[in-house]
Recover the amino acids of this structure.
């Protein structure tokens, strides 16, 4: 397993997060969203987006760095004082770093933060054609509903998953060394 460092993101990470975001979209959403949309994604626009996101109260983000200090993945979420449910907004890992347990480590970090903040229930939205839905299912998320959404002029199916109580998942993630980890079922 490749050694990595996971830490809470800062505004100084916006550019590195933006690069992972754009590059991951181009591999993850290839053949899901129109190519011309993906071709128009820019590091500059995403850097501005992440600078804003990381500045806003209620947003949470973690980055994973390789030993050279390059950001190779990230996760983000948000909290709402009005609701008792946290929102897992993103989890992206560069293709060459996938299937190494990094996603589980990122989930462990952000869910631990949600837990400390008093959130037990977490929701996530994912496009039906995105294989990340299988990752969420393997981690025990249950499908709440599906709805149609429009992205780049294309109708897509959006799936909404929920972890009703992240306590058991966090216990298993904390106890795991991630070697040969095949889910919690």
């Amino acid at each position: 397993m490749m050694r990595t460092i996971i830490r809470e993101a800062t505004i100084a990470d916006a550019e590195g997060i933006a690069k992972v975001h754009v590059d991951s979209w181009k591999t993850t959403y290839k053949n899901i969203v129109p190519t011309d949309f993906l071709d128009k994604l820019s590091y500059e626009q995403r850097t501005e987006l992440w600078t804003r996101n990381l500045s806003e109260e209620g947003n949470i983000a973690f980055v994973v760095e390789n030993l050279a200090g390059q950001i190779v993945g990230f996760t983000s979420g948000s909290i709402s004082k009005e609701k008792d449910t946290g929102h897992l907004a993103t989890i992206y890992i560069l293709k060459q770093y996938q299937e190494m347990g990094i996603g589980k480590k990122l989930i462990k970090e952000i869910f631990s933060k949600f837990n400390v903040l008093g959130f037990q229930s977490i929701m996530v939205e994912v496009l039906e054609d995105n294989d990340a839905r299988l990752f969420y299912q393997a981690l025990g998320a249950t499908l709440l509903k599906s709805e149609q959404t429009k992205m780049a002029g294309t109708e897509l199916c959006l799936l909404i998953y929920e972890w009703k109580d992240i306590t058991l998942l966090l216990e298993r993630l904390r106890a795991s060394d991630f070697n040969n980890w095949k889910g919690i079922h």
